[in-house]
Amino acid sequence: MSPTSALAATLATYHSRRQQRIARVPIWQSQLIAVLEGCKIIHTRSGELVCRAGEWLLLPAGQELELVNQPDADSGNYLALALTQDRQWLQRFHALYGHLLLDAAPGHPVFTPSASSRQALQQLVNTLERADGPIDQALAEHGWQGLMLALLQQGQGRSLLLLPTEDARQQLQALFAFDPAHDWTPAKVAQHLSMSEATLRRRLAAASCTFSGLLTEARLAHGLGLVMTGRQSLLDVALASGYQSPSRFAAAFRRRFGLTPSALRATRELPEDLFSTGDAPVIPG
Q: Domain HTH araC/xylS-type: where (predicted)?
């Protein structure tokens, strides 16, 4: 992953040199995406969203979409930052500033950030790039709060700040995402959640999902993130995603996303060091 990965994938960098088209991408946690080069196109049930370089995109949780990452015609690069909202950060933000959300405008999913929002994101990127310890993590959360307040000030960001529900689906998604390679079984999960297997099955049925379906989705989503942002071998990606065989991982990956991990990895054509100066990426004005 890029240098901005200091806090458990809170902020990830996505880079490609060829077009990427990925189907059925699950969005479990709300995301803020800043496109630095190229263009991102999102296909949802309600239509198409186009986010160009210099624009930001808000993706609320609880949806599945198709995305296209299109490199810039001149530079040949697609480059974007994706900020995932941390559940504990959201809870503490609501405790401090929840009253500010009562009259907040919903905003538009694609927008041009204000100077204050750009500055706040740049500060957060710089903090995450060097974060190493509890004080740095506290500074990162403080910077994130500043970014959220800057977004609210310009009439954006409300969809990022919705607290996630606590149904069975959300509980299992969080559990599987924490350790997708673990040998999860309904019995182990039920014990972890302090309920019987029968209760777990009833709650999953009420949420219109299955144990195996959620586990597979979590493992493939984890693998997708590693393929798009990391440098590990595909064998290591498969193992980290709970697959003992790279071929089985590749087959499941293709069924889900419409292309193989190796085909997606090939679109990146990564240089030895994406940020050769050693600095965090610069948010364009």
A: 170-267
